[in-house]
Amino acid sequence: MSSRGVLIATDSIDSIDFDVVETFGRSPKTPPIHIDLQHGKFIKFQCKCFTDLNLTKCECKFEGSDSPLLGAPCSTSKIVIDETSTDDGLPNEISAPYEVPQFPIEQIEKKLQIQRQLNYHYLADKHSVTGDFADESVNVVDHELVPNFQRVSISGEDTSGVPLEDLERASTLLIQALEMRSRYMSISEQAFPTTTLRFLKTVHESQRFNKIQYEDRKSIAALIRKISLPMILLPPRDHPIHPPTETSNPWDIEFPSDTNYIIKTVNGVFNIFQSEDAKEPLLPNYPKLKDFCNDMQIMCTMIADGPLKSFCYRRLCYLSSKFQLHVLLNELRELASQKAVPHRDFYNIRKVDTHIHAASCMNQKHLLRFIKKTLKNYANEVVTVTKGQQMTLSEVFRSMNLTTYDLTVDMLDVHADRNTFHRFDKFNAKYNPIGESRLREVFLKTDNYSNGKYFAQIIKEVAFDLEESKYQNAELRLSIYGKSRDEWKKLAKWAIDYNVYSTNIRWLIQIPRLFDIFKSNKLLNSFQDILDNIFLPLFEATSNPSKHPELHRFLHYVIGFDSVDDESKPENPLFDGDIITPENWTDDENPPYAYYIYYMYANMTVLNQFRKQRGLNTFVLRPHCGEAGPVQHLVCGYLMAENISHGLLLRKVPVLQYLYYLAQIGIAMSPLSNNSLFLNYHRNPLPEYLARGLIVSLSTDDPLQFHFTKEPLMEEYSIAAQVWKLSSCDMCELARNSVLMSGFPHMMKQHWLGPNYTREGVAGNDITRTNVPDIRVAYRSETLLDELSNIFKVHQHPHAIAESP
Known about the structure:
four-stranded parallel sheet; 2 domains; TIM Barrel; AMP deaminase activity; about 40% helix; alpha/beta; disordered N terminus; metal ion binding; 30 helices; A/AMP_deam_AS; single chain
């Protein structure tokens, strides 16, 4: 066969039926061969490519492309009928009734799949524009965006497999639960999935629902007035993959004018008043404690409902089985789609470590090298005060009878081992290098004698490693304990003075649940003191930024709040609306988990409304939830948190697990951390959650305690892939989930995932950036739509199934 032309087998040119002609290709740069399997003659087109089956015209674009759709304009379209032989002198007779393929059929089929994938993206690009503008101005025909793959379809009116009465009851309860979460998310300016939101609107069309995006919650549609039409119509493939490099000072933040509002607490929740004499708050819209308690009671009754548990369990099993069938039918198609994408693979797609603590974000070898280097370079620097006497770094080590030569990783003793399983107290002790709390204070604290100098240096080294990797990002947790009013001021000053900033890092503020310890040490009088120390500085910085310049700048890079501590501590998980208010909580007993979460959520809700009114970024709630302890923690997370960390106990509560799926709540999971503390690796539910379609991502939690390599996130992925036999598509889906649920700015995500990433289904996926095949995204989208349709169809037409013939 000639490498410069294409061959078509036919009796005559006039008999060619191009609807039934089959196409084959030798290589991406070799034109396709068109063969009529019933004849033995060939037509050779003397052109370098073949894009149009019209024999008199070639519509190729430019020279040297690997894609037939992007080939060079032909110098000729002359047709030569060759009835004897080909240029390559094939050994078989042309008059033979069939052609023996020169390549295995599987290889030919794989190349065909790649060619179709390229053709599909070319057609899709012609209809694409960027951002939300596309939603308003361009009508894309749905079938042009839906990839071709093998689907599993369940026919019949009732596809749930449960009695109609149980189905109607389950539908009513699930919709009630989804409406509850939608209300809590809308009030607090947190995100809720648009697909589920559309179904909820059909139930209560009069109810106002807000579509919220991350951080500034603004899409690029807001920029349309500032840019030209050609820029708006820029196809996604021309939208830059890497965000523009920041050259300006990251702390050069715009300051809105001061308001001088009066800030007061009402039953533990801060509110804004116009003046000292005003009786009505300006932002009264937040769930009251009594309403929250009622909603908790409803949810707890719901998760214990027998028929609902059976329904949700059956649906979850169905989702698992459906995914297994999808993999069996489409695994090769997904792999072919990934192979068709140039330059993109798992190593160079964006990943976000969605759950990692700043104090343990380095591995043990990194910490050891840093301690040795610091001891060598800053030996005579005063770092602490012991019994009223100043001590230099060298004196601290001399008091422990240690030198730099003596230090080893084993001596640091910061790595978790088999002795930390179900022993959270021993795990916390691992934060102290060499068992010395003094070393933790010197190297891993922001508030110490040296004002966190060494901690800032090691954080910047970790940030530099992330920047070097280019595609890895992290959301580091910094602690605010609520012990004193100036904690926020010190933390902001630490970040700005030492310029602890990176485009690859954003901050979450973790609030440990340690009131009982502070109270026993007489640091606080009541629980209200913790709330005052945590939230009052934030309200003051929002109201009067010029009086708190450093905190105002720092908050621009804070994305949310986390609640941390040992969840397995004994507590009373439920309480009613008559529970004492924070100012009256003066007992030494620690408040329950739900009490902490409610007051964090309520104050954050008012703060978000205030900051949104002022044009500032808002925050999200992303607590540790469901790692251990009672399942009521997961109910709190469902109602009030945008995302959660861990979520292991969902495997025991099918109703909540199904609701987390329907509401697409992000779950940051850390299998290596869980393996050392609460759950053996092979029992971790992450692969089960992923198969069912929950939004899960891999995270490291504490690299200092659990990881060995310089890239702990890649270590987490590699172990998960080996143990659970995850495919390349699964790993890329996990990475895409991590970006979606992260708090990085919307504009940055557009570069990472594609300018249309907020759209539903395949329209929101750009395989050239995410390496997630459209087949997988379409499967996830269609499956979610099916589940929601089953529930809402019954709710809207309760007798439709019963009356159907």
